[in-house]
């Protein structure tokens, strides 16, 4: 088995905000009927979280469940166990109209930390972050590419994008968070 | 710049987060249909000055298609609604009628 490497290992930058690549993270795309109790039970078994409401992310003991679209969730689990979680999901959802696919190595995961995180994100995403609650998630674009952004806690934000555009998103975030580019809109 | 509300995820976002997908409520005429019907389905599109119904896709968001009723002249958006409809729903028609009393209704 080859050694797994995340998109931009150990990338870090400090400017208006602290940027960091989150490292190897297990991610599973689960598609199916989100109202189904069988699916809810499978999500709970995989992450400990309940099925999130629209545009929300729920945390459990062993992972997170993020709402991606009316029929899609992103399950965030430890990297090493992801393949096993997919197997367990497939077993649990055997009779359901649902699919689970591991996408850990197809995504890049960034963490944005600091009081100016919203200002930095608002420079690249066409989103009003003023009443963005903790646990809320938004799929949008970061400049030219698709991304999902959510608020983990107060000043800690997460951003997930396709791995193929990881360098682009990294350069983008690092550029807009250079000192001197303060906006000071969100306080 | 249009501000559209995706009925699938409830997000109100600006135009660049969406992708236009042409005229709404087209009826498909496939193999075995009349040549004239097929030609109209394939090539003939409405191009009104005023109220128009379009398909849009929330391309950078939830990825779902939906329909939007808007004015091509003023860019006013009257409303957005489910793509799983064959004609504009009554509440959308009422909203358009309130804003454009001269509108003749969906044809």
Q: How would you describe the overall organization of this protein?
A:
The complex is a heterodimer of chains A (187) and B (107). Chain A is α+β, with helices and mostly antiparallel strands and 187 residues long. Chain A folds into two domains: 12-23 and 106-176, Gyrase A, domain 2 (2-Layer Sandwich), CATH 3.30.1360.120; 26-104, Heterotetrameric sarcosine oxidase (Alpha-Beta Plaits, 2-Layer Sandwich). In chain A, 22% of the residues lie in helices and 33% in strands. In chain A, the strands form two sheets. Chain A has a six-stranded antiparallel beta sheet. A five-stranded antiparallel beta sheet of chain A has the order 4-5-6-3-7, with helices on one face. In chain A, a hairpin with a 2-residue loop joins strand 5 and strand 6 (72-77). In chain A, helix 1 (37-47) runs antiparallel to helix 2 (82-92). By secondary structure, chain B is an alpha+beta fold. Chain B has one domain: Folate-binding superfamily (Folate-binding fold), CATH 3.30.2270. In chain B, 18% of the residues lie in helices and 29% in strands. Chain B has two helices and six strands. In chain B, strands 3-4-5-6 form a four-stranded antiparallel beta sheet. The longest helix of chain B is centred in the C-terminal third of the chain and has 10 residues, at 90-99. Chain B is globular. Classes of the chains: A alpha+beta (187), B alpha+beta (107). At the A-B interface, strand 9 of A face loops of B. Chain B: This is Sarcosine oxidase subunit delta. Chain B: It comes from Pararhodobacter oceanensis. Chain B: One of its GO terms (biological process) is tetrahydrofolate metabolic process.
């Amino acid at each position: 088995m080859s050694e797994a490497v995340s998109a931009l290992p150990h990338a870090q930058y400090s400017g208006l905000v602290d940027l960091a690549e989150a490292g190897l993270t297990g991610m599973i795309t689960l598609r199916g009927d989100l109202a189904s109790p069988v699916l809810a039970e499978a999500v709970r078994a995989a992450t400990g979280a309940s099925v999130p409401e629209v545009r929300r992310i729920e945390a459990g003991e062993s992972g997170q469940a993020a709402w991606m679209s009316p029929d899609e969730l992103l399950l965030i689990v430890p990297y090493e166990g992801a393949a096993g979680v997919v197997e367990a999901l497939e077993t649990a959802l055997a009779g359901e109209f649902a699919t689970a696919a591991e996408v850990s190595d197809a995504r890049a995961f960034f963490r944005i930390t600091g009081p100016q995180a919203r200002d930095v994100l608002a420079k690249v995403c066409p989103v009003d972050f003023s009443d963005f609650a903790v646990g809320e998630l938004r799929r949008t674009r970061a400049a030219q590419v698709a991304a999902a952004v959510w608020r983990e806690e107060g000043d800690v934000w997460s951003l997930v994008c396709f791995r193929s555009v990881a360098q682009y998103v990294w350069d983008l975030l690092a550029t807009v968070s250079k000192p001197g580019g303060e906006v000071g809109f969100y306080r | 710049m249009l501000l559209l509300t995706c009925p699938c995820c409830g997000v109100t976002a600006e135009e660049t987060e969406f992708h236009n997908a042409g005229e709404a409520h087209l009826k498909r005429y496939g193999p075995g249909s009349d040549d004239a019907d097929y030609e109209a389905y394939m090539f003939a599109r409405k191009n009104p000055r005023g109220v128009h119904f379009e398909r849009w896709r929330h391309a950078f968001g939830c990825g779902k298609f939906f329909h939007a009723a808007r004015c091509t002249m003023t860019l006013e958006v009257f409303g957005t609604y489910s793509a799983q409809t064959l004609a504009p729903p009554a509440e959308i028609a009422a909203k358009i009628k309130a804003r454009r009393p001269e509108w003749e209704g969906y044809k």
